[in-house]
Amino acid sequence: MEEVRNTKVYKARYTVSRDGMPAVSIPCSPIKYHVECYKGKKLVSFLTRNTISEAHHDAKSFVNVAV
Hints:
Elements: E1 5-11, E2 13-16, E3 24-27, E4 33-39, E5 42-49, H1 52-63
């Protein structure tokens, strides 16, 4: 049986923590986008792209790849 391919696309963020202080999440500047690609529940690829359209294109390409 073929494994399900799916993706997550979201804005990139940094997580910053210092001793004794809680971690803080701040957005990247300039804005970047991450694409997580999964086969079943396993993460098989993690990409960073400059625009949301590039990120969605890569996500769509991953899902539609002929096996």
